[in-house]
Amino acid sequence: MVSTERRSWAALMALCACFFMVMLDSTIVTVAIPAILTGLDASLNEVIWVNSVYLLANTVPLLLTGRLGDRYGPKRVLLVGLVIFLGASLWCGLATSAGSLIAARAVQGLGAAAMTPQTLTFITRLFPPEKRGTPIAVWGAVAGVATITGPVVGGLLVEQFGWQWIFLLNLPIGAVGLLIALVFLPDWLPNGRIRFDTLGAMLASTGLGALVFGLQNGQHYHWGTVVGPLGVPHVIGIGLLLLGGFIIWQRRMTDEPLVPLGLFANPTFAFANLTHGALGFAVTGMFLPLVIYVQSVLGLGPVESSLLCAPMAVAAGAAAIVAGRVGGKHLIMSGLGALAGGTVLIAALAEPDTPPMLLVPGLVIAGVGIGLVYAPLTAAATFGLPGHLVGAASGVFNTSRQVGGVLGSATTGLLLQVGLSVSVPEAARQTAKSLPPRYVEEFVRRVSDAANTASQFRETGPQVPADWSPSIAERVRDLATDAYALGFTNAAKATLVLPVVVLVLGILCAAGIQPPSGNAKDVDYRPEGATP
Predict the structure, then answer these.
(1) What is the pLDDT of residues 187-206, one digit of tens each?
(2) Cα–Cα distance between 267 and 247 in angstroms, integer?
(3) 413-417 long-range contacts, Cβ below 8 Å, gap at least 24?
(4) How far apart are CA 323 and CA 332, in angstroms?
(5) How many of the other CB atoms lie within 10 Å of CB of 499?
(6) What is the pLDDT of residues 152-171, one digit of tens each?
(7) What is the pTM of this model?
């Protein structure tokens, strides 16, 4: 007969498999952006939405799905989420248009939202407080390694099998996780019914959705009209008002609010969530410009770019092992500082002709930083959680990371598109000085148009008028490549400043995390007579 402890560790394997897929899919798309752009003839904005809609759909329901686990049992909610996630992964792999892929990713995000809070809830129930450090370290290490592994695995799959396999990979991993979960996860059920805060869920979801939509599509709509009299600034304003209304409503709710604001009376929990949000913002925000830069400017293929990121993943894994044994807010602050320092080094070295290997030290430093943060931050946030609030707290903690990731993806994508609209035409004008004057304006226009479509990823470059001589056409294509490389590099370097600024704010938040108090209590909220 399998001992209780061994069953708990076997159950942890299933939880880690689920969480690994969720985190992997938050970054795996970035390395496939050029392939998806050309394969589906999509725009850069559409492909950014492939990633952002997953993060958004994974974020908005987290507060609710944490409560669903409290009401119906975490095992049942996790299994439903896993089935939805796997079905949507198959849909993603079979998608033949950008719209279909975006819709599939939204459903995939909903499945991920059902799973994520249950993984942390299970850890707090499966292991007593005195034995919880190692499982939380493992959970945190999975988060860090999966986030970095996404581009590595994605590059290998795109090169060998096609971009569709970055989604189909989930099927075997999920099948194994599903089998282990069915056998080893205990089916805890709540003692009493929990009332849902329907109005709170609607305010939070619509508010966050409107805010991210406005930020993500501002440049796409030229900050003007979206539909009828409704413009981008109106959408963002509505989102902020709804989120403000959500906070007010939560303060008034005394019976089962969606987010029990009493959780934030604990300064450590509050600062840990702010830090988690900053980390999610920075990690998601840095990958978008970095991956496109190494592929479209430096000319690396998916496999080469994944191998370039491999040392980063190894460094994150090694650092996570150390972090799980050491812990503490100073380790968290050091990790955030290392991630910021690595990002600054990458931005400083990035040029159109930078040797790719020159970026490796910055990537390794960033990887070490990511690995140092997740486990001790999770341990700090979950220490001494009241039993009756553990589901809600898990939802809040994961929501903070996902909100950061959504905003990081949206604002970084926005800055990158704005940067391209400014830097590419400027670079084209500089490059066009060697052309005859009558070709200059046409050259600048065509290069600028290509920078906002999939054209810049095609070997032929932007189209040239048929009446141009072959010698001029060839010269123009070479100059167009140089102009795009210079313009995108400048835009990417400027974009990477934002994640660094957010990381500095994250360090300030981490300074507020207090070490665990020896008399803190962890309330066991399992139903009476339940067996771990």
Answers:
(1) 877 665 666 777 888 898 88
(2) 18
(3) 413/45, 413/48, 413/52, 413/216, 413/288, 414/215, 414/216, 414/218, 414/219, 415/494, 415/495, 415/498, 416/288, 416/289, 416/491, 416/492, 416/495, 417/44, 417/45, 417/219, 417/220, 417/452
(4) 9
(5) 29
(6) 788 788 878 888 998 998 99
(7) 0.75
